[in-house]
Amino acid sequence: MAKGCFITFEGPEGSGKTTQIAMLRDFLASRGLEVITTREPGGTPAGDRIRSVLLGNEIGCLEPETELFLMLAQRTEHLRKVILPAVSQGKFVLCDRYFDSSMAYQGFARGLDPQKIRDIHAQFLPGFLPECTVLLQIAPEQGLERARHGGRKQHDRIESEALDFHRRVFDGYNSLARNEPERFLLVQADGDPLQISHKIIAGLEKRIPVPGGKE
Ligand code: TYD
What we know:
Blueprint (H helix, E strand, L loop, with lengths): L4 E6 L6 H14 L4 E5 L5 H11 L8 H25 L3 E5 L2 H11 L4 H11 L7 E6 L2 H9 L14 H17 L4 E5 L4 H15 L8
Parallel strand pairs: 1-3, 1-4, 2-3, 4-5
């Protein structure tokens, strides 16, 4: 069985990840590949329960470390039970948020030491990282505006943070991408979704041999 591939999508609130993941899934499936889409926090029954603690407004304020450990707990379930098995079966796994979200949100925005987050991840989650991370770039003001007018009734607990918090998330992502240019694929997210999708596909094909393509 061919080796699978793990691709993550990251970006600030309202960067259009869901739409782009669906478009990439359809493209890869049209090439005859087996694709699964998943998300964090979530992706497993336990992960979905943890998600509701993390994002529920009724929870109020959580300590940054509590938030981090819950993110890592749901990721442990997700990685071991969903992501690794699928990749080893030769599937393409497209994941809405993963490790870099913990770095950007709990690290850069909440103020926990990013190096410590990286170390814990390496120790307990075998440091498993994606072959490619698509970073959808949108100014925090614009992203929040989109997320908050996207038809959902209520903002979740993290989305409701102040603009400054979301600016730190944005800067954090840029700093992560600067340090790992070979893993990150940066794509501007404020245009026509079809054109954005074409840019993502073109960028991926340069980094990952997508079967059925030109190579
Ligand atoms: P979600 O509704 O999926 O938001 P989005 O559509 O923007 O992806 O909520 C996920 C939220 O969880 C989002 O605010 C980012 C946050 N998050 C972290 O803070 N750390 C993490 O490690 C992960 C995976 C997500």
